[in-house]
Amino acid sequence: MIIELHLLQSFPVSNLNRDDVGQPKTATFGGQLRGRISSQSLKRSARVLFTDRGLQAGETGVRTKRLVSSATRVLVDNGRDEAEAVAVAQAGLRALGFGIDDKKQLTQYLLFVGNSAAELLAAYCERDWDRLSADAAARAKAATKNSTTLKGERQQEEKPSKAKPDKQTLTEAARILDARRVVDVALFGRMIADNKDFNVDAASQVAHAISTHAVVNEYDYYTAVDDLKPQDESGADMIGTVDFNAACYYRYANLHLDQLAKNLDGDTDLIDRATSAWLNAFIDAVPSGKQNSMAALTPPETLLVVVRDRGAWNLANAFLRPVQDTDLMVGSTRALLGHFGRLRHFYGNEDLRTVVAASVTADLDGLPAHEVAETRDDLIARTLAATAKA
To answer: Rounded to the nearest 10 degrees, how much is the dihedral formed by the CA atoms of 319, 320, 325, 329?
Structure first.
């Protein structure tokens, strides 16, 4: 079973998701430039809401390169010397098969792990302290010898080092990376190129949000004044520009409940709470970019949820021709529902278990009355009830 979430959300002046030069991201769609918010940005904005939408902190995860420092803090709290704890934590992660930049104390790449991973890594380090400490000492000695040998010569930057773990150590790695109760990883998946046994297939797919209409990025030229400047002096003490646009976005995400159940090892209570958290968090997710100066905190105004047995329909092609109505939300809602209705007519309703929609400002023309919800709570309750009928 699959839940599909279609949202129309209009943002006023904003720069929610910037590119490498600080401008709002864009994409060309239907031959016209559109505003864009990346799926990565939307997923993180949803993830940070999970603990406020029914999940416990221990049921969520972190994406980090800083497991060494996190495990070191645990070891220091256990009474270990900090310098020795850093060396052992690095040796521990290296033994588990992960590359470590010893100078920066970072893993070679971001690891998506449960919030308990640092404690589990620290526990592993404590159990194998003598061996890992000896490994760290041997590595430090070799590094010193290498440095002496190359003294006076140009030293090349050392690549992050890692070891090939044995079967017992892989068991420890599996314990630390166990994601069967980590909802973030269960939803969005994990890929570890060095060891595919730790990969997790994502249960949720998220599209980049695109504006339903053509967009032109603009910029704000601003000045700032020194509050303590003498009154007889004039002029600005700081000038600059900030790019922005204003757009109505189409957002789409889906959740494959069978994959979610598999990833969460069939824990029905956690599956139900994860589904509710996903639905609520994605409705509320708003990227944090430039919010302190623009406060573009507007919620979705048109919401369409489809619960289906198979297949999936991203409805972005409803906006292949840019909406040109003066009221973009009304025009976008009309285009969305019109496209959805045409797909239903052409492909049939056989796979659709439940359709429910709600809108704050637009008429939901084309939908029968029993598919219209009056409130957000009603829409969510109907959606979750439909999934419970499986």
So the answer is: 10
